[in-house]
Amino acid sequence: MEPALKLQNSAFVALINFLLAAIAFVGFVYPRFSNWGFALIRLIFLLLIATTALLVRDLWRRTTRGRAVLAVCLCLPVLFLFGELTVWEGPLYISAKPTTPLRFQVRGPAGFWGLKILRSDRQTSEPNNDGAELVWEIEWTNVQRFPPMNLEFSHGDSPTGFQGWTSPPLLDPNATYTLILKPAMGPNRCYAMHGTQITEYNLYPNLCGK
Fold first, then answer.
1. Which of 23, 98, 138, 157 is deepest in the core (most CB within 10 A)?
2. pLDDT digit string, tens, across residues 151-188
3. Structural contact between residues 185 and 111, judged by C-beta atoms closer than 8 angstroms
4. Which residues pair with 177 in a beta bridge?
């Protein structure tokens, strides 16, 4: 089949879109690769519109109804992906760049709601009393809008739509800190940060749930 004819085949276009949606879904499940999902999601939406137009045409023609039915079946998982993104509760990805001050990047379809940074000398006998050890905290304040799903910001610099301290102390690159990452949907996650190395852990489950 000629390439031009393949692009007019609703089942072929739907198959390509299904494969792209599968790659995007894997990227969102493993948030380190969520940038793949964000890069593909607009293309997937455009191909879904194109597939819909082609399958309507194929349904109209008696000789192409079979491939139109196949295209409908391939579109269902794509629609499922878009539906899941509206209620996604997966983890967020967070990384730090070695700048002064430290620069964070947070991304994921669950939406970034807030971040707490705590000192590393936390007393395990007081797992709920974290106020005295708070280094910095930001939180999304524009409740009329969904928070950003891909954001980069510096320590001490509250991004647009967030509220936090304007001049917290600089982070010691030789110390270990606890990060509490708050998604808009789903449970909080706790991370240990030493320098720019960030690893997930759950040493204080009561604290992470806040």
1. 138
2. 999 998 999 999 987 678 888 888 889 899 999 998 89
3. yes
4. 193
* Beta carbons of 163 and 172 less than 8 angstroms apart: no
Assigned token pair, 156:
């001490």
Beta strand 189-194 pairing with 176-183: antiparallel
Q: Tokens 């706790």 correspond to what residue?
A: 190
Q: Which helix (H) or strand (E) holds 19?
A: helix 10-29
* CB-CB contact of 181 with 94 (8 Å): yes
State the pLDDT at residue 10: 87
Q: What is the value of pTM for the model shown?
A: 0.77
Q: What is the token pair recorded at 37?
A: 């999902």
Report the distance separating Cα 122 and Cα 101, nearest Å.
23
What are the structure tokens assigned to 94, written together? 């967070």
Cβ atoms of 36 and 19 closer than 8 Å: no
CA dist 165 and 91 (Å) reads 25
Mean predicted lDDT score pLDDT of the chain: 85
pLDDT at 60: 86
The arithmetic mean of pLDDT across residues 198-210, rounded, is 65
Question: For residue 121, which phi and psi values (nearest 5 degrees)?
Answer: -90, 40
Residue whose token pair is 């600089």: 170
**Residue spans of beta strands (DSSP E) within the chain:** 93-97, 103-107, 112-118, 134-140, 150-154, 162-164, 176-183, 189-194, 197-201
